[in-house]
Design goal:
heterodimer, A: 251 residues, Ubiquitin-like (UB roll), Fumarate Reductase Iron-sulfur Protein, Chain B, domain 2, 5-stranded mixed β-sheet, B: 225 residues, mainly alpha, 74% helix
Chain lengths: 251, 225
Amino acid sequence: MRIALHVWRQVNAGARGGFERYDVPGITEHMSFLEMLDVVNERLVEQGKEPIAFEHDCREGICGSCGMVINGEPHGPVRRVTACQLHMRSFADGDEIWLEPWRARAFPVLKDLVVDRSALDRIIQAGGYISVRAGSAPDANAILIPKRNADMAFDAATCIGCGACVAACPNGSAMLFSAAKIAHLAAIPQGEPERFRRAYQMVAQMDAEGFGSCTNHGACEVACPKEISIDFIATLNRDLVRAELGWGAER
Amino acid sequence: MRRVVTLYRSSVGKKVIMAVTGVVWVGFVVAHMVGNLKAFQGAEKIDHYGEFLREMGAPVFGHGQLLWVLRIGLLVTIVVHVLAATQLTLMSWRARPVSYKVAPHMELSYASRTMRWGGVIIGLFVIYHLMHFTVGNVHPDFEPGGVHHNLVVGFRSWPVALVYIVAMGALAVHLYHGVWSMFQTLGINHPKYNRYRRPLAAVLAAAVFVGFVSVPIGVLAGAIQ
């Protein structure tokens, strides 16, 4: 198949970027989206041109490295997959495909489609942890918890921190990411003691990073390759109120 | 109070305060709508109800005093609601300085997309509405205390009735997303009951819309004379 790419090219964080069009013949539908970009890059290198920078690591949808807005949709048109798990069979011969980096003030573009997502790491550093050693895997299994809580914690823990929620949100809010982390740790006994302090500190960091404010559109939930539910955002909100008003443990 | 101020500082706290002030206004809107239905019971009933609103609280409060307390309460809550909304909107606009070339066409509902400007439209309508039926300076034949007379004369003009119906549509859309958002923001969620939240918001919004527009339609159709 033959496609046309419009790719956001930006030399570095300080440079002005713009779209460049690439005519891409000789693509097979079995290629993954990133393999298609690899082919484009090989051709660019052969021509002595700068390849398109994009992030990737595991290419099996579990690391959270890849991510770009493909035709207006974070991770592309297929639900529940990351960009690396998207295949060219999801496109048609002759398609025009627009590739843009995640757009958020908190995610400055480093180069082309690569953005700096350290802001999400700093939200984790602000409270997304358990302060004491919680033991190794057998210790966790020694504490019995209801299946429902275990499932809820796991559903939240599937977040890979790719940032698609921020990219999809019309407000550039990081609420789904923060909520997944807060709800994950709040649902298990090891995380319970620091529950309210965690909510307070992570929300404060989220605000400080320059993310926007959630208006419950639900775009994040649709974009999330891991189907994290916005129900977790309600959990975050409840924990924050309890932390702020002092109904929970001290923050 | 200090805790409420620190709560207000965070983005989530501002939303919580928007939710709480929103609940106050939902209560007001529902009470107002139910009161309006007295228009169908004739001039005497609704004029009497209008007088009751001024007399309520007696003998502790004098004529119209409790009404003014409630009005000031509503004014304060709406100012806080709008202030928080404005601050959060500016925060969100700042959060995406470069917009997408191909706009993300995620599944945003019409109601959620129109919360901000819809809210502004409702605010402007409320100012017109107060000038029309409370102060009476934009009413062709305003009679203080003549609630039934005022609304019949007011709504006989179909453009005026149309403005009311459209504004109530905007209010219903705002409530549909607002009530659901309120559940979400106040953390009122439970896996068992979450599926009832959107239908509840829809039923409330629809009830408010139907209740309010029944009066101008009743006047135009001749059911209220």
